[in-house]
Specification:
- There is one protein chain.
- It contains 16 helices and seven strands.
- The chain is α/β, with parallel strands linked by helices and about 375 residues long.
- The protein has a single domain, classed as 2-Layer Sandwich (Beta Polymerase, domain 2).
- It is globular and about 55 Å long.
Length: about 375
């Protein structure tokens, strides 16, 4: 089965098609949706289109459970954002919510049915020492890392070591950029912060502008090294593009902003794949912007699509395993030059650290 022909993608493109699924297709859809992190979103689409009566009871039970989890996480995020706003009220700098936390707290298009594992915030790099101090006073502690790992985060990466709240167990990532300091692509976090919008009801808490939400989501996805949730992130992009496409000059502003932030590469991939896999509506001129040209572009498209097929065994193709390896290697190559990457990987191999500590060059969802 090709990824584009999978039951999951067919339903994401046309939610009303759920009314015609066979029992076997329903079983497969639930499994694919759960594995891809999209089962809650499917449930949200059922409610949006008012087709609960056409959904088999066992399938709807699974979807409803994921919707309950997503709603619980949304309420927990609102509570955490309230605590962050209070704890950081003395900081003279904007605190920007990113991705899942921003979607949930602001009720953005991808929020319905979406689950996530941590809260990501971004602030000016100069303000990080003060923010870290106030976070520690509020009960947040950093992972215990050795000297090398501390230097790895604080000198090279775009975020500080992950933090966890002592009482609530919530995970927090504090960013000062959306790409590492050593990344081959350099962008402008100051421009993203300057264009951010206040989150009503939460003093000094902000969310990115609509175009920056799209660009950050695309940059996160196409610099990722682990693609098990690649389809979920692509679906996030589809939700954002559909929601904002009605804004005056949105498409023009999106392309212009990508050029300003030096993020035309990830945006081009995002436009190409949302249209090809999810039938995201967009003007033809914009679709042409996303078309990958030449043999290299076609090969990269094949690698990306194969990587997204890793969400569930039923969607995997013969090249999926190789694509996963290539995307993992590519993510490292994009984030660090060889003069730093080779010694870094050698150090991690020798130290025997578990994957998920400082070797997590892949960004979290």
């Amino acid at each position: 089965m090709k990824l584009v022909d999978s039951t999951l993608l067919a339903v994401l493109r046309d939610p009303l098609s759920m009314r015609q699924l066979s029992q076997e297709e329903w079983t497969l859809l639930v499994r694919q949706g759960r594995a891809a992190g999209l089962l809650g979103r499917l449930g949200a689409r059922v409610i949006e289109h008012d087709i609960q009566a056409a959904i088999p009871v066992p399938a709807w039970r699974h979807m409803r459970a994921m919707l309950s989890i997503a709603d619980k996480q949304r309420r927990a995020v609102l509570w955490e954002v309230k605590q962050l706003s209070r704890g950081l009220i003395e900081v003279d700098a904007p605190i920007l919510l990113l991705k899942g936390a921003a979607y949930a707290a602001a009720g953005l298009a991808p929020a319905a049915g979406r689950t996530f594992s941590d809260i990501d915030i971004m602030a000016p790099k100069a303000a990080l020492p003060e923010i870290e101090k106030y976070l520690m006073l509020s009960g947040w502690v950093s992972e215990k890392l050795d000297e090398y790992d501390q230097r790895y985060y604080r000198k090279w990466m775009h975020e500080l070591p992950p933090m966890t709240h002592l009482r609530r167990g919530t995970n927090l990532d504090l960013h000062h950029n959306i790409l590492p300091e050593t990344a081959r692509i350099q962008t402008r976090p100051d421009l993203i912060l300057a264009a951010s919008q206040p989150l009503p009801g939460f003093p000094n808490i902000y969310i990115p502008s609509s175009v920056d939400q799209v660009l950050h989501s695309a940059t996160h996805l196409y610099h990722e090294g682990e693609w098990e949730h690649g389809l979920r992130d692509l679906s996030d992009l589809d939700c954002l593009l559909r929601a904002y496409s009605s804004q005056p000059n949105f498409w023009h502003d999106l392309i212009a902003r990508a050029r300003e932030l030096n993020l035309t590469g990830p945006l081009g991939h995002a436009l190409s794949h949302t249209r090809a896999l999810l039938s995201t509506p967009m003007p033809e001129t914009i679709a042409r912007f996303g078309n990958s040209g030449g043999l290299r572009g076609k090969l990269m498209d094949s690698v990306f699509v194969n990587g997204m097929a890793s969400a569930h065994p039923s969607m995997r193709r013969p090249g999926t395993g190789l694509a996963q390896l290539l995307l993992y290697v590519r993510s490292h190559w994009l984030r660090m030059p060889l003069r730093l990457l080779v010694p870094h990987l050698a150090h991690k191999a020798m130290s025997g650290n578990k994957k998920g500590q400082s070797d997590s060059l892949s960004q979290k969802a």
